[in-house]
Amino acid sequence: MGVYIHWPFCKSRCPYCDFNAHMRDNIDQEQWAVAYLRSLEFYAKKIPDKQVISIFFGGGTPSLMEAGLVASIIDKVQFLWSVANDIEITLEANPTSVENDKLIAFKDAGINRLSLGVQAFKNDDLKFLGREHNVEEALRAIELAKKYFNKSSFDLIYARPNQRLSDWEVELRRAIELSNGHLSLYQLTIERNTPFFMRYSRGEFLIPDDIKGAEFYHLTQDVMEGSGLPAYEVSNHANIGNECRHNLIYWHMADYIGIGAGAHGRFTIAGNKYSTRDHSAPEIWLELVNDNGHGSHDWRIISQKECFYEILMMGLRLRDGLSIDRIEELSRKRFYDMIDQEKLQTVISQKWAIKDGDNIRLTREGLLRLNAIIPYITF
Question: Are 321 and 360 in contact (CB under 8 A)?
Fold first, then answer.
């Protein structure tokens, strides 16, 4: 099982971000500590017999948390559940909130993997993306992360307005030189309910169309594969052993609990797969935890049909794909009762997918069409 902790606060909101993030002048971190610990106790009573293999602090900007708060959560997880000897404990950080002393404090608290939100190596683009750090600060943060943590990663966003393929290749090769065995590379998308959506709708800027976006994607894959950091998932690249364990939990549809304003969870109790969603408003979440011991809305049982689609969608994001036996085991649905075999064969003949015995996976061209392939081949 994985444990996801959501810290819903940022110093400022990036214009492309549609995550549950809020700005507050004063945050009582002791109050939040009490709420997190109480929520963990609630879930431990519901799901006592799991082994925790990953803890992930996401946000928001979790590096704004006090190291003592992080340590108390880690200690509580280790007290409530059996914990793997090689547990991976990740914290997301922005370069602006990363300082030498604070990194040491996070390491002492139990963090053993750091994920940095760098996003670009050009100051003009960082400003466009609403980032508060500059390139120099990003470079310093990357080096500090490598100094203090055996595992570290950073994110970049590509296919930005006016970005040329040649410029992205230079930036990407620089990232590879700086990397510590893992990079997350996301193509810029315009999400509803973000400042970028309004600006894009007014024609204030353009992003590459689908054809140009595919060129960026293929260039990215070519460069990364040639450098020994192939994609193990659509947007995540690593050499062997440096894959993000927590994200693999999501893509393999394993169990995880989500705690914090806006957090989601998926876990199994008595053969039923449950979906949970914590209230997104931080103050209301705190009130709910105080009153009920947890901050989630009513739990929902995921139907077998819905579970089948989720497993297929998540598993096909992975380079290795997934086995038909795994799909049937988790969803309790027969694969060929849910799949149009003729349409699946069409996808295979187009070289968008490969079926090798019991395993099915998408090719690079297929991954570009993932969101269209799933509804096409399923009933």
Answer: yes
Residue 19 lies in a domain: yes
Over the chain, what is the mean pLDDT? Answer: 96
Task: Kindly report whether the global pTM for this prediction surpasses the value 0.85.
Answer: yes
pLDDT exceeds cutoff 90 at 97: no
Residue 195 CB partners (closer than 8 Å, separation 6+): 13, 15, 130
What is the tens place of the pLDDT at every residue in 18-75? 899 999 989 999 999 999 999 999 999 999 999 999 999 999 999 999 999 999 999 9
Residue 29 in contact with residue 65, Cβ under 8 Å?
yes
Q: How far is CA 227 from CA 7, 175, 235, in A?
A: 34, 11, 16
Number of domains present in the structure of the chain: 2
Cβ 110 vs Cβ 267: under 8 Å:
no
The distance from CA 273 to its chain's CA centroid, rounded to whole angstroms, is 21
Tell me what the mean pLDDT of segment 103-128 comes to: 97
CB 184 within 8 Å of CB 155: yes
Considering the domain architecture, whether residues 231 and 352 belong to the same structural domain is answered as no
Q: DSSP H helical segments within the chain, as ranges?
A: 29-46, 67-80, 100-109, 123-128, 135-148, 165-178, 195-201, 210-226, 245-251, 282-292, 304-315, 324-331, 335-338, 341-349, 364-368, 370-377
Instruction: Give the separation between CA 142 and CA 90, rounded to whole angstroms.
Output: 15
The runs of H, that is alpha helices, within 97-233 are 100-109, 123-128, 135-148, 165-178, 195-201, 210-226
Asked whether the beta carbons of 158 and 186 are under 8 A apart, the reply is: yes
Residue-number span of the structural domain to which 314 is assigned: 304-377
Tokens linked to 59 = 């946000």
Q: What angle do CA 132, 134, 138 make, to 5 degrees?
A: 100
Q: Is 203 helix (H, G, I), strand (E, B) or coil?
A: coil
Given a cut of 80, whether residue 98 has pLDDT beyond it is no
Q: Which two tokens stand for residue 37?
A: 């610990």
- Within-domain flag for 289: no
List the one residue out of 236, 251, 138 whose CA is nearest residue 181.
Answer: 236
DSSP state of 278: B
Residue 274 lies in a domain: no
β-strand partners of 93: 116
